[in-house]
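Researcher: Please predict.
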Amino acid sequence: MVGIVIVSHSPKIAEGIRDLALEMAQGYEGLYCAAGLEDGTIGTDAVRIMEAIQDADAGDGVVVLADLGSGIMSAEMAIDMLDGSVKVQIADAPIVEGAILAAVEASAGGTFEHVLEETEKTRGLSKL
């Protein structure tokens, strides 16, 4: 099963996205959050992200979605710390729509490549 990690500066945002995605992909258990700092304040922490990636890894790879630029930078540092031990990639996708689609595709048994590709297609979705 492909795992998913939501990286956000805000634990409330990450948990809300997780709740919404799991509503659409009921029964999926591979969605993790890495949000906020250890003291509960706003921010991102590469070590927390790395640990979430490791927790989400069931052997088929992990797709990461992040909210803002420094979240991307922290996720990149986390991936570097893993030193190739996990197949992982940051999706170039909006965090809400991307997380929902990733969870649905992963819950349906999609491969890492398929989940990542479909997730990144959400970049071009029109909401109107």
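Model: Strands lie at 3-8, 31-35, 62-66, 88-90.
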